[in-house]
Amino acid sequence: MKKISRFTLGIVLFTILIDMIGFGIVIPVLPLYAEGERFRATSLQLGWLLGMFSLVQLVMAPLVGKLSDQVGRKPVLFLSMICTTIGFIIMGAATQLWMLFLARVIAGASGGNIATVQACVADITPPDQRSKSMGLVGAAFGLGFVLGPALGGVLSACIAPYAPFYFAAVLAFCNALFIAVFFPETLSVERRAQSYEKAPLAEVFVGNQSILISTILVAYLASIAGFAMMTTLFALFNAKRLGYGVSQTGYLLTYVGVLGILIQGGLLRYLLQRLVEKQLAAMGSLILASGLFLLPFCDNFVSLLGVLVPIALGNGLVTPTLNGLASRCSSPQIQGRVIGLMQASGSLGRFLGPLIAMALVGWDTPSQYGRTPIWVGASLSLVAFCLAVTFPQKKTPPSAAALA
């Protein structure tokens, strides 16, 4: 059983990797692409465009998580990858701004697949190993961000501004084929039947852990919103403050991805043997807030590299530990819904973050571009820190399997 679980986990992580490469390709390209001569998006339009994906995902993620609880993980993942493929094709073929919005809506509707793959991890992982497995999920995310932004920058600079979107469509379609052929179903028929019996979403908030789940959701929302404000402005910050193009921004995001792999694939595993998740979530939120506060002071490449370290470290600690906490305090029958709610909370943060960032960016002079929204993002991370220190949790010794 242990070998089967490891094989299945490897397939799940590979699926996440391919998905996140496609997602990461868009990050350094879309803000400058939409603001360019073809579309001429205003700050308000750009904020909505960048947040639209997450707004639709906010609505769809709990529904997708619930659906995966009832019909299984594999068919939901396959369908979501097909929709993602369609969204990227429309984005690459777009000639008007509304077509970019349509593409983001379609991609957001299928974006609940992250909640489903996280539920797959919860299906095959014992409770005392959840945060470690979520750390591996984070490492797969990080590797996707290593390859994705670099590919996006190179394809945009060397071929055409729209080339990254077509490449991401090919990746998503290949991922759909991979899921159809190799991906095993991780949810048993018995548990699907139990999920039909407990389908209402309100079941998540019944019991002694309802307050903890609610607090985790709010902390996750604040942390993600603060981080999203930075990522929304990162390409524009680099262009307007430092004169960097899309390729340089892609390389910097690749650097952040490498740090994320080291943190979530190695450091987090080490720290979880010595600290409880509550402490790591609080520590990560505080470190992230510190990095965001320092970012507007960067005026050269070296200082930017230095400040990205605490930003990557803080985000790398807080995200998997909050997901692990949410998973551990929920029963197996509602795993998909709880993780779907976590995804929805993160989606709300990724929607509000761009809107707030683009609304506040006008407060800054050109030489201070991005300072106010990034500092507001740091304040939101401090809110997450204050909530994390209230989590009631006792140390759970790692099992022998967890340390293997």
Write the layout of secondary structure elements.
Blueprint: H1 2-26, H2 30-35, H3 43-71, H4 73-93, H5 97-109, H6 113-124, H7 130-158, H8 163-182, H9 189-197, H10 210-242, H11 246-272, H12 277-294, H13 301-328, H14 335-360, H15 371-388, H16 400-403
Helix pairs in contact: 1-6, 1-7, 1-8, 3-4, 3-5, 3-6, 3-9, 3-14, 4-5, 4-6, 4-8, 6-14, 7-11, 7-13, 10-12, 10-13, 10-14, 10-15, 11-13, 12-13, 12-15, 14-15
Instruction: Compute the average pLDDT.
Output: 79
User: What is the string of helix and strand elements?
Assistant: HHHHHHHHHHHHHHHH
State the helix count.
16
CATH architecture annotation: Up-down Bundle
Tell me the overall shape.
globular
- Please report the distance between the alpha carbons of the first and last residues: 15 Å
Structural class estimated from helices and strands: mainly alpha
CATH homologous superfamily caption: MFS general substrate transporter like domains
CATH T-level fold name: Growth Hormone, Chain: A
Strand content: under 5%
**Cα-atom Rg, whole angstroms?**
20 Å
Number of domains: 1
Largest sheet: none
Work out the number of β strands. Answer: 0
Q: Name the helicity range.
A: over 70%
Q: CATH class, anyone?
A: Mainly Alpha
